[in-house]
Amino acid sequence: MALGAVAEPPVRRRGSDYAQLSRRISQAGLLERRPGWYVTRIALTLGAFVAGWVAVFLLGDSWWQLPLAALMAVATTQVAFLGHDAGHRQMFRRRGPSELVGLLAGNAAVGLSYGWWVDKHNRHHANPNHEDEDPDVGAGALVWTPEQALETRGFGRWVAQRQAYFFFPMLLLEGLNLHVASIRAIVGKEDGKYAVPMRHRAVEAALLVAHTAAYVALLLAVMSPVKALLFAVVHQALWGLYMGCAFAPNHKGMPMPTAEDELDFLRKQVLTSRNVRGSRLVDTTLGGLNYQIEHHLFPNMPRANLRRAQPIVRAFCVEQGVPYAETGLVESYRQALGHLHEVGRPLRG
Question: Residues 198, 185: contact at Cβ < 8 Å?
């Protein structure tokens, strides 16, 4: 170093921080699979799901089918959570069994393309809340940055100005959106090639067709067309609402890094995620997604271990001076809606 030059502070090797945390988590045995827990969870969830459809069949042409449709929306979402866990290989280390559960839970039971979801969700996990990389914050029916808001036109701009008020009502259409997106992913092409990579495209297509046919046939077999239509509307609308409410608290309103931000893996995941405090009832209701920070740091950690991992991760973040966001469920929605409202501010000026 030249005489009189100012000594630069030592460069901190942030890349080692995640390795340290990973060792602590591994030593605690929290990355080990939980086959017994998942066998029980799968049995209870699928048992409730099948029992619900048996009840639909036995109840027949009755207006009591509409409250039952609401209960089936809950059961359907819980099955979707199993597909989520399978997609992250939380149940099995091997791809084959994971894909089998994912296809059965997603395509066959719920009517959601497992391959499309895995591709989309993996891109989200790789760059959470990154406007250019995360498909969950790309401009669409809602906008997530002031820049996206300013690019809207016509009816889209009118919605963007008021999107915080429309957020929950719009989630009633999320179920339909997921079904449509699944179909587009299977058949959609760009430049003569399929736009979405998918390992089992023919199988996924066949399962989606079988799901739709069985769904329509069952409803029309046991109730009048009007009641069948209303059942489907209630079921799909509340399923979409539940799914949206489970995923909305996780990242909405958290920092959105750009290409200029140089974040290591640990900070990229922690700073963009928000945990939701609560009891084991909250854990079940949100499918473990309330431990979003731990889930993003260790995506293949079994859901049952996330609660035990939380104090380890939180303490490590305190040691490293990394902000760790955690709040109640209602407050998480308030923060998410506050972000949506703030994004629309330039349009209301």
Answer: yes
- Residue-wise pLDDT tens digits, 9-44: 333 444 489 999 999 999 999 999 999 999 999 999
Single out the residue of 49, 109, 61 nearest to residue 220, CA to CA: 61
Dihedral pair phi/psi, residue 276, rounded to 5°: -120, 120
CB atoms within 10 A of CB 296: 20
Helix (H, G, I), strand (E, B), or coil: what is residue 325? coil
* Rg value, the chain, Cα: 22
Residue 7 has pLDDT above 90, yes or no: no
The confidence score (pLDDT) of residue 23 equals 96
Asked whether residue 254 carries a pLDDT value surpassing 90, the answer given is: yes
Identify whether the C-beta of residue 307 lies closer than 8 Å to the C-beta of residue 120. Answer: no
**What pLDDT was estimated at residue 14?**
45
Helix (H, G, I), strand (E, B) or coil at 21: helix
pLDDT exceeds 80 at position 2:
no
Q: Which residues are 190's β-sheet partners?
A: 193
Res. 313: pLDDT tops 90? yes
Q: Tell me what pLDDT residue 192 has.
A: 86
Q: What CA–CA distance (Å, rounded) separates 37 from 308?
A: 14
Q: How long, in residues, is the chain?
A: 349
Residue 89 contacts residue 95 (beta carbons within 8 Å):
yes
Average pLDDT, stretch 340-345? 94
CB-based contacts of 309-317 (< 8 A; 24+ apart in sequence): 309/25, 309/28, 309/30, 310/275, 312/21, 312/24, 312/25, 312/28, 312/30, 313/21, 313/25, 316/20, 316/21, 316/24, 317/270
Helix (H, G, I), strand (E, B) or coil at 217: helix
The pTM score is 0.91
275-276 vs 193-194, strand pairing mode: unpaired
End-to-end CA distance of the chain: 54
Residue found by looking up tokens 């889209």 in the block: 156
